């Protein structure tokens, strides 16, 4: 898909550390040179399939806090001070060219964890130094992604730039990142329709008194656009589009998906104004890992996508010739992020 868009193979990085052999062979055929590894198995596989690739070792930097959506360290990356030196030594013995280090702190990193980028970059510097002791000359550092679109990127940049200036002052080292969520998170708002509702009585465990609870069944759910958000417990509270009801008073509510699965639950408990069958609920900032992970379980259709843009932005994008497609250039210095 990326190649079909005109992106040059040398401008891409094969970041999955567990490569399907046929995919690995295809990467070699089209000249996708930069590939990531974090195990001896991948090095032996690479020696057999793609011995002249440029290899990047992935290290891990796990966080022991909760302000993060997905932690990658259990599956990806190696310890920078133990396993990384062993793998680099093996790569040297196999005659493979290693050109840099990558890491990915986790997906959906909150501001509380911004400082982790500093320590991860410091870890990468030690791996660079060990590589140099083996005769390697690394020139690439991939700091991964995880930046949420709703957070203030300059606050992350301040920490990251400080670490880069401290540990990687050499301007010849290319610094790249993978800010996927940051770019697409706000690109899509999801409109869902209440296809059914049910009022049930819940019992207050403290007072012993009953109170009304409203169950709203939506036309989208876990098997559609909400899988990632439900698993990572990041479902946002929706806005209700309705003129029929008083919007000030709020009631105990829950939101459910439309499938036959009783586990198709979006929000177990949320305070919402009273809504009606047929009302619309708007979930903002649903651009990341929503439609791309949706299925047609129970033969339910996926949401339609309607591009919307305001006149000022459209005019800017349409008429501004300063925008350059950096991904199709042959000049890597213009395409990769540099200090």
UniProtKB/TrEMBL annotation:
Pfam family, one: Orn_Arg_deC_N
Gene source species: Cryptolaemus montrouzieri
Gene3D superfamilies reported for this sequence: Alanine racemase, Lyase, Ornithine Decarboxylase, Chain A, domain 1
Domain Orn/DAP/Arg decarboxylase 2 N-terminal intervals: 2-185
Highest taxon of the lineage: Eukaryota
Family: Belongs to the Orn/Lys/Arg decarboxylase class-II family.
One Gene Ontology MF term: lyase activity
Protein keywords: Lyase, Pyridoxal phosphate
Lyase is among the record's keywords: yes
UniProt cofactor(s): pyridoxal 5'-phosphate
Name of the protein described by the UniProt record: Orn/DAP/Arg decarboxylase 2 N-terminal domain-containing protein
InterPro entries on file: Ala_racemase/Decarboxylase_C, De-COase2_N, Orn/DAP/Arg_de-COase, Orn_de-COase, PLP-binding_barrel
Record carries keyword Repeat: no
């Amino acid at each position: 898909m990326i190649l079909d868009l005109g992106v040059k193979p040398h401008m891409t990085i094969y970041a999955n550390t567990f490569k399907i052999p046929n995919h690995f062979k295809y990467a070699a055929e089209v000249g996708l040179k930069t590939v990531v590894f974090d195990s001896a198995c991948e090095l032996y596989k690479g020696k057999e399939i793609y011995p002249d690739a440029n290899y990047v070792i992935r290290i891990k930097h796990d966080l022991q806090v909760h302000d993060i959506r997905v932690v990658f360290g259990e599956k990806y990356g190696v310890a920078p001070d133990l396993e990384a030196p062993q793998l680099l030594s093996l790569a040297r013995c196999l005659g493979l060219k290693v050109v840099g280090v990558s890491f990915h702190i986790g997906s959906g990193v909150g501001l509380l964890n911004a400082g982790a980028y500093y320590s991860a970059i410091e870890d990468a510097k030690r791996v660079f130094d060990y590589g140099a002791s083996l005769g390697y000359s690394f020139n690439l550092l991939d700091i991964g992604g995880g930046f949420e679109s709703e957070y203030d990127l300059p606050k992350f940049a301040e920490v990251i730039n400080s670490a880069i200036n401290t540990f990687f002052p050499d301007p010849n080292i290319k610094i790249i990142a993978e800010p996927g969520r940051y770019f697409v998170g706000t690109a899509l708002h999801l409109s869902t329709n209440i296809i059914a509702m049910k009022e049930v009585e819940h019992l207050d465990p403290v007072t012993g008194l009953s109170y009304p609870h409203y169950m709203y069944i939506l036309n989208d759910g876990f098997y559609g656009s909400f899988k990632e958000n439900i698993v990572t417990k990041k479902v946002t509270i929706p806005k209700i589009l309705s003129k029929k009801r008083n919007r000030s008073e709020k009631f105990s509510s829950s939101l459910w998906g439309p499938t036959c699965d009783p586990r198709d639950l979006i929000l177990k408990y949320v305070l919402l104004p009273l809504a009606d069958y047929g009302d619309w609920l708007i979930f903002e900032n649903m651009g990341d890992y929503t439609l791309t992970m949706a299925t047609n379980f129970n033969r339910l259709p996926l949401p339609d996508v309607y591009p919307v843009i305001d006149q000022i932005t459209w005019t800017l994008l349409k008429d501004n010739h300063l925008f350059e497609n950096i991904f199709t250039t042959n000049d890597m210095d213009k395409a990769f992020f540099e200090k």
